Amino acid sequence: MTLAGVRVRHSWINDTSSSAMRIIGYNPIQSESAWNDSKLLLGAAVHDVVKHFQLNPPLILEITDKGLQSIQSNNKKATNGSRTPTRTPTRTPPRSGNNSIISNNDDAPPSYNIVADESSTPAPEVPMPRVPLKYPETDNLSREELDDLLSDDLEFKAFVHRLKIFGEIFTVGSSRLDENVVVAKENLEQETKWKALKSEVKDLQETFKSKLDNYSKLEEKQNVICAPPDKNSTLRKLHKAKKEAFDESEKIAEEWVDDGGGNVDDFCKRFLERRIIHHTRAAKMEILQNNNQHQ
To answer: Which of 11, 58, 166, 249 could form a disulfide with 274 if both were Cys (CB 3.0 to 4.6 A apart)?
Structure first.
C-alpha cells in the first residue's frame, strides 16, 4: 500500500525511496502472513489507514501529481482572492531638534492585561520539551551549506523533521490528540446518563413548582383563618346566636306550661342555662358595639 501524488514525512511511511511513499506502519500489511491472520477486507484496511492519517496528518514535503498541484493552486487563489496585497507604508518617526528620535506611543503594542480576558479559561499545561540551544546536526555544516539549507524550503523542512526535538514535539502532540479522542469517547458514553439526569431534574423542577403553588394556596387559607375576625360579622353571628338561645329558653317555658307544670327545679335549671347564654351573648355584643363607638 502506497501514498501516491505527494512526498510526505510520517512515522507510518517509508520515505527512503524517492519514487514511492510506502505505508509500513499499519500492522496488518507488514507481511503476507499478518494480512492473512488479520482477516480484513481491503476496504476496511484502507479505511483504517485513512482514519489514522486524518487523526495524525503527515507533513507534506512535495506534491508530485500535477492534478493535485493545480487543485492546491486554485484553492490558494480562492482563499487569497484576486486582490493584490499592498504594503503598508513605513512610518518614519519625527525627530526633534537634537536629532533624537521621539517615541510614538501609538506604535507600541497593547498591554497584555488589556487584551487578555480575565474570565477566559486558562490554557491547559502541556509538558513541552525544552528547545535546545545547540543542534549537533549543524556543527559540521559550512556557511554555504547552511545558506543552501535555509534557501531551500523543502530541504529545510526535511532537515527539521529529522531533528530529535521535532520527534519529541510530534510525540507530545500525538499523545494529546489521543487523550482528546479518549475524553471525547468518554463524554459520548456518558451522554445518555447526562440526558437522563437532565430529564430527572426537569421533572423535579415541575414537581417543586406544583407543590409550591399548592403551598401558596394553603398559606392564603391559613392567613384567612388565623386573621382577626371582622367585628361586624361577629356582631351578626352573636345576634343570631343570642336570638337562638332566647327562643330555646322560651320553648322550654312553653313546654313546661303545656305539660301542666312538672318538676320546678329541673325546669329552672334548663331555663336559666339558656337564658344565661342569651344574656352572655347580648353582653358581648354590647362590649363590641361600645368598642366600635370609641374607635
So the answer is: 249
- Contacts of residue 140, defined as CB under 8 A and 6 or more positions apart, other chains included, come to none
DSSP state for residue 158 in the 8-state scheme: H
In the chain the beta strands, taken as DSSP E runs, fall at 2-3, 6-9, 13-14, 21-23, 59-63
Contacts for 4 with CB less than 8 Å, ≥ 6 apart: 21, 65
Average pLDDT, the chain: 78
How many angstroms separate the Cα of 88 from the Cα of each of 80, 106, 108? 18, 16, 17
In 143-263, which residue ranges form alpha helices assigned H by DSSP?
143-151, 153-161, 164-189, 191-226, 231-258
The Cα 196–Cα 191 span in angstroms is 9
Summarised one tens digit per residue, pLDDT across range 156-181 is: 888 888 888 888 888 888 888 888 88
Which amino acid is it at 182? Answer: V
